[in-house]
Amino acid sequence: MLRQIVFLLVASVMITACTEQPPRFNHFDEGQQALSNINNLLSNQSSSDSVTSWPFSNEYLQARHFNYQGLKSIALDESQQAQLNYLIIAERYPERYFVWPEQRDVVSRAINKKDYSAQKLATWLELVQTQLMQAEESSLKLNKIELKLLHSMVQNHLTNNDDEVVHSALSKLEQYLSQYTPRSKLGLVGLANGKDWYQSKLNYFGAKTQPPLTWLSNIQSQLKQIAIHNVAFHLPTSHSTPLVMQFFSQDENVAGLDWQLEYRDPLQSKRELSAGEQYFWLVMMETDLGIHYHTWSEQQARVNLIKRLGVTKQEADWLIEDIILYPATSFIFSS
User: Fold this and answer.
1) Which of 48, 84, 162, 233 has its C-alpha lying 20 to 30 A from 77's C-alpha?
2) Would you state the pLDDT for residue 253?
């Protein structure tokens, strides 16, 4: 079933490609700006006052695909090319079925735009539910932490939104999520083609191609050689940006293409880490592999973080959420 859906989606893009041409960019910045425009309800850095594209709608997916193709036609440096390759590979995987990313409050962002349309927001909320239902038919499901975060946002807006058409769409989505049964495995390995998706993330963020077992062996070897450190760090109140970005250089802002990293090039933006910070991120990488590849439960991941880092249960749970929402990003600090 999943293969049939993927085939139909790819065929749809190919048919559209016959009648439309990718945009012609003169340089990288133009392509980055085009992606920023279509991701304006997802990126924290969006400067647009208008709703230019609803996340993961058909129009969004087509525009994103064409922008990627447009970037392929211009000269890119090695790092820019690696970013683009990573994002193009991600088109193969089931992200499109999870229309509302749990780390972004799309509804609040939409309501604050000057051309906000309650009817369009309601239509998008219906798409969120429709795609989740279609995903279920292909055994693609949210895990319990993703479900909790999404359900919480829906309930919050249901309480605070008085618009009749939006309230109706939120109510239907809330009812659906209330009876939703999440997948048993927390990590990407619990999704169809999830291991391949995770491998692509490891290849990019780790800047090398090697299997998860090799990564784990190297990480655990390094942990044995480093004294345990108590690391002081600040946990934000939300997951609107991944924790890794707290460890990016504040002096350099190298342009990137991924809205999840606020259009910064992660491998060019990371700063030098202290010994304690290096230890912290090695533990995060170990836990990341445990969750996304070795099917660790929430309890297994929590125990590892508390034992290795001496964090509280609340802090460990926040770190687990960050690992689930931003798989493999910790591997930015693998070298």
Assistant:
1) 48
2) 75
